[in-house]
Structure formats: structure tokens, C-alpha cells
Design a protein that fits this description.
There is one protein chain. With 417 residues, the chain is of the alpha/beta class. 37% of the residues lie in helices and 19% in strands. It contains 15 helices and 13 strands. Helix 6 crosses helix 15 and helix 11 (310-334) crosses helix 13. The longest helix is centred in the C-terminal third of the chain and has 25 residues, at 310-334.
Length: 417
């Protein structure tokens, strides 16, 4: 995308937006930046959405559309890092002359640690606390903080709201929070937290809208599958177990992250292979997962297109195997299963992965209809299955905007940035 060439079109379009109370949501993932504008009127209304994807990769993608689906930008553009992508979005919006309509910036923050169990206004003390959590989410937390810094540079007068991926799991049952390390380490914050909470919240809200409150009484597993991936077991609308724990490394294998790993391997790498701590961290977070197994790509779409290559096929098969294993474990925790929801970039858009995970799970009541699955219908379960299986996109940005709208109604929101 030629940003200079497209700026005029963006300015003309954005200038026609009719809202004097806009929330700008910034959602930084491990390889993407999503930005969305919402009118915080009586009812929350999306104005436009955009994303920069495959950041740091040779073939980046930049796109945006309005609420009706009209394309505002759709082009290949390479961003070296998250900061460049954030600045590009903010420059376009601030150049429109409509920056006075922005009421607040709202940010997804991956790790809130033991203290942050709900959305809060950002101030200097909170930022300092969140920086201390960077080692627990090194692929995300620095980018989340960069988004806050970029928004502050653009509009230092506006409140910044932080919404946490860990907050949804804050009430995990005590045994689900445990590690088997000495109890004394729990006092310094070493415990299981869980992640992707904003996505899980959105899925539950969508089930409530489409099925009524009765859906929240079910035993539900949500599989958020993307470059980062996790699953959560939900009962009575509350998280009771999840595959990610202390950091964003655990559970399922991901784009570049290893997922669950025998801790003895780390000792071996440090002592027998003479790796340093920074080298081990880089290996686990950035060289493992789908990329490490395949040696081809961290992107599932790329691997599915290259399944003729044995290493790519094996990476896909391993991902499905691990997801199937965790799905069975979460079903055991729930004591059965009523509904399974696939979401996230992979979960909502990759029929082959959904079928690969569900294959052989008839004993759990999970059976999917091949035709519905291939066509991308929302309900993909077969008639003979007792578990309702669905697949639909998540919307973390909308969830963040909802939290922010409610928080802004409270005059106690911190105005420091």
C-alpha cells in the first residue's frame, strides 16, 4: 500500500464519520496490529477496522474496511516492526482532522499479572508494573506497551484504557492456578494465569446473543487457534481450566512458540548444550512451534498449502494431535461437553484443522459434518453428535471497546497517560 497515495482517500472517508465520541482500539498481537474505531454513542457502533498482518515477514498485508464492508485499503505492505504499523494507522487517523472526536484509546494488554483483574485507566505506575511482566509475554507485552506509547505521542491529553487477556481467568479454581513448585513461589506471582481472555469473553457474549442465557449454563470448550493458540474450559460462564498457564508459552504448539515442554529439556539445553538464557528464550518463543517443526513457515495457511512437503504435513498433524489431546483433557475437567467453539484466525477459517482436531472424538460426542465444515457454516456438527460444534470469528476489538465504553461512564477513570 502506498500510504501517501491512500491518505487522501482515508481522510475524505474518515471526515464523513458522524460521531463526536470515538474510541480507538489498538490490538497488538505477536505478528499483527489491529486497529478499530467505534462510535461510543447510546449503542456501540463500529466505524472502521484495519490490520497490518505478518509483521516482520517478507510478505506483509495491510487492509482496512468500513462497517458495511467497503474496502478502504487492501494491499501488500511490509512493516519491519509493530511500532511502524501502529504509527501508520495513527498518522492516517490524526491527519483526518477528526482527532477531536476521539474520547479514548483502548489497548489489549496480554499479561496483567495477579493485580489486574478488570479494565483500568493507564498511568505511570501501571505502565511500570506492566513492564515488569514483559518476561512472561515477550512476544506481546512490549508491543502492547508500544501501542500505549504511540497513542500518547499522538494525543497526550486523552485517557488510555488497558484491557487484559488474563482478566477472564482471574477467578480460576485454586487447583487450576497451582503449579507443583514450592508454595513460597506463588507469593512472588508464579502461578497459572491463562490468556486470550478477551476472545473468550466475546465468544460467550456472542453465544448469549444468539442462544440466550441458557447457553452459559452449558459445559463449553472454546478453542482460540491462531499464531497464538489456547483452549479454555468454561462452566456457568466462568473459566475453570485453560491450556496456557504462567506465560504465553504453554499448552498448544503455536506459530513460533513450543507449547508444553518437559522442563528437563531446558536444564539439558543450559548445561549440556551450553546455551545462554537469552538463547533459550529465543528458541522457545521465536524458533519453535510450527516454524520449528516444519522449517518452512510459522503461518498455518502456508503450511496447509505446502502439505506435499513431509515436514509441513507433519507440523500440521502435530498441531491437530496436541489440540485433540488438550480437548480431551478439558472435557474431563468439565465432566462432559455440550458445546465446542472454534475461533481465532485458524479456528474460524481452516476447515482442515477443525476436522483434523475432531477426527476420532466420537466417543466424546463430537462429530462434524464434512460439508458444513468445508462451506464454513457456523454450526458444523453432524446430526449424530451430542456436542454442538461451531466456528465463527472472534472480535477482541469490540470486546475492548465495550469494556472501555463502560469504564468511561465512570468518572473515576484515570486521566493520566
Amino acid at each position: 500500500m502506498n500510504l501517501e497515495g491512500e491518505t487522501g482517500a482515508w481522510i475524505n472517508w474518515i471526515s464523513n464519520m458522524h460521531s463526536d465520541r470515538t474510541i480507538l482500539v489498538v490490538n497488538c498481537g505477536s505478528s499483527s496490529v489491529k486497529v478499530a474505531a467505534f462510535a461510543a454513542d447510546a449503542e456501540l457502533r463500529r466505524l472502521w477496522s484495519g490490520a497490518a498482518e505478518r509483521i516482520g515477514m517478507a510478505s506483509g498485508y495491510f487492509h482496512a474496511h468500513d462497517a458495511a464492508g467497503a474496502v478502504l485499503a487492501d494491499d501488500g505492505r511490509q512493516f519491519a516492526d509493530h511500532q511502524a504499523a501502529i504509527d501508520a494507522f495513527l498518522d492516517l487517523f490524526m491527519a483526518s482532522g477528526q482527532e477531536s472526536s476521539v474520547r479514548a484509546f483502548a489497548h489489549r494488554v496480554v499479561h496483567g499479572g495477579p493485580r489486574c483483574d478488570c479494565p483500568v485507566g493507564v498511568n505511570a505506575a501501571l505502565e511500570a508494573y506492566l513492564r515488569r511482566l514483559v518476561p512472561l509475554a515477550p512476544l506481546h507485552q512490549p508491543h502492547n506497551l508500544a501501542g500505549i506509547a504511540a497513542a500518547r505521542r499522538a494525543r497526550p491529553d486523552l485517557p488510555q484504557i488497558a484491557c487484559f487477556d488474563t482478566a477472564f481467568h482471574h477467578g480460576l479454581p485454586r487447583l487450576a492456578r497451582f503449579t507443583a513448585l514450592p508454595r513460597s513461589l506463588e507469593k512472588v506471582g508464579i502461578r497459572r494465569y491463562g490468556f486470550h481472555g478477551l476472545s473468550y469473553e466475546y465468544v460467550l457474549d456472542e453465544l448469549r446473543r444468539s442462544n440466550g442465557g441458557k447457553a452459559l449454563g452449558e459445559r463449553i470448550i472454546v478453542a482460540h487457534l491462531g499464531n497464538g493458540a489456547s483452549m479454555a474450559a468454561i462452566r456457568e460462564g466462568r473459566s475453570v481450566e485453560t491450556t496456557m498457564g504462567f506465560s504465553t508459552l504453554g499448552g498448544l504448539p503455536m506459530g513460533t512458540r513450543c507449547g508444553d515442554l518437559d522442563p528437563g529439556i531446558l536444564i539439558y539445553l543450559l548445561h549440556e548444550e551450553d546455551m545462554t538464557l537469552p538463547q533459550v528464550q529465543h528458541l522457545l518463543y521465536e524458533e519453535s512451534g510450527l516454524l520449528g517443526i516444519s522449517g518452512i513457515s510459522r503461518n498455518m495457511k502456508d503450511l496447509l498449502a505446502r502439505r506435499d512437503a513431509p515436514a509441513a504435513a507433519e507440523a500440521v498433524a502435530f498441531f491437530c494431535y496436541q489440540a485433540r489431546k488438550h480437548l480431551g483433557a478439558l472435557t474431563a475437567v468439565l465432566g462432559g461437553l455440550d458445546r465446542l467453539v472454534f475461533t481465532g484466525g485458524i479456528g474460524a477459517n481452516a476447515p482442515a484443522i477443525r476436522s483434523g482436531i475432531c477426527d476420532g472424538l466420537d466417543h466424546l460426542g463430537i462429530s462434524i459434518d464434512a460439508g458444513r465444515n468445508a462451506r464454513g457454516e457456523r454450526v458444523i456438527s453432524a446430526g449424530d453428535g451430542t456436542v454442538r460444534v461451531e466456528a465463527f470469528p472472534t472480535d477482541e476489538e469490540e470486546m475492548i471497546a465495550r469494556h472501555t465504553q463502560l469504564l468511561l461512564a465512570d468518572r473515576s477513570v484515570a486521566k493520566e497517560a
